[in-house]
Amino acid sequence: MKTKKLGLLVLSLILAVSLAGLAVLAGCGGGEEEEEAEVYTLKIQSGYPRGDISMGLLEVFADSAYDRSDGRLVIEVYAEPEIVPLDELFMATKMGTLDMLQCGGTFWGGIVPVGEIEFGIPFAYDIPEKDTFEAKAAEIRRFFFEDGLVEILRREYGKQGLYWLDMHTYGPVTIHSKYEVHTMADIAGKKIRDEGLWTRYHNSLGMVGTTDIPPEDVYTALTTGALDMTQWDVSAISGLSWHEPAPYWVHPHQNEHIIGHILVNKARWDGLPAGLKQALADAAKDYWDACVETYKQEVENAYNAEGVIVCELDEATQAVWRAKALELWDELATHDAACAEAIALLKDWRGVT
């Protein structure tokens, strides 16, 4: 009888221990589930003001990230200068004041020189072998991801504590002028607002380049005569109305697409679960697609916009511009090892010897 009772006692203890173990496992599972359900709120600021197409399309990026992550990625979108001005954007993202930025590498070419090549040095993204806006964009994206440029960019931005997430297009970035221009003489001494390396390029052509005027002040600068010209994408016409003081849209474009990026604070990126990293990357690709579609349409619309006058440079002027551009390519290749790598890739791709 005592043996029977002892057996029942042992069985009860085994059962109790098993149930406790199951409770512990259940508790652990609940904790993981709770952790996996964490919502991440990320702030992104554009380098461009409201009215710029790429800035407005960041809502596509935010919505896609939310949907692809089942609501676990909440992206707050800001325009320049709503949190920081453009000249502080890179450092603010590096230091974690912002989680992400959307802009172009030329704006911090002094910190990451290869960013100038990424953005598009003169005539780098002239793609005559492709017939359509979309095909030209797709070929540039293929070059980035398949020919090795992305690896260089992620390495170089990584040195600055930033993760290069993805690229996007601004379509052709070209000159908007207060004056009709066709020849080298027409552009001599004209004051132009531009970005990064393009200031040096335009100066070599006889213009007077500056980056000192922020985008939100360009309309006034063109109106008052502080500027004669500005370099910008079709947003200058479609959203910023810069064609009102500067109606001449100078052709041909030196690049058929100019490329921007989304950079993520590296610590913030590394802290995301793998699934959310993938959701963010997929959302960035959706943003690329939206930019291609929207810029194509806006470029087509611009040709019919009231007050816009297409202005063609003559062939002799185009030849000078291209020759000066290739001199700049060679000079940039001497800047550092990353630039040398990128220029070699670019020349091989474009068949430049």
Protein architecture, described:
- The chain contains 15 helices and 11 strands.
- The chain is of the alpha/beta class.
- The strands form 2 sheets. Strands 7-6-8-5-9-11 form a 6-stranded mixed sheet.
- Helix 9 links the parallel strand 6 and strand 7.
- The longest helix is centred in the first third of the chain and has 35 residues.
- The protein is globular, with a radius of gyration of 26 Å.
- The termini are far apart.
- The N terminus is likely disordered.
Summarize this structure as a short list of keywords or feature phrases.
353 residues, alpha/beta, D-Maltodextrin-Binding Protein, domain 2, six-stranded mixed β-sheet, five-stranded mixed β-sheet, 11 strands, disordered N terminus
Structural class: alpha/beta
- CATH class of the domain at 39-170 and 258-305 and 336-350 equals Alpha Beta
Gyration radius, rounded: 26 Å
Mean pLDDT over the residues: 91
Largest beta-sheet details = 6 strands, mixed
Provide the CATH superfamily of the domain at 39-170 and 258-305 and 336-350: Bacterial extracellular solute-binding protein, family 7
Distance between the termini: 99 Å
In what range is the share of β-strand residues? 15-25%
- Shape type: globular
Helical content (DSSP H or I, runs of 4+) = 40-55%
Elements, N to C (H/E): HEHHEHEHHHEEHEHEHEHEEHHEHH
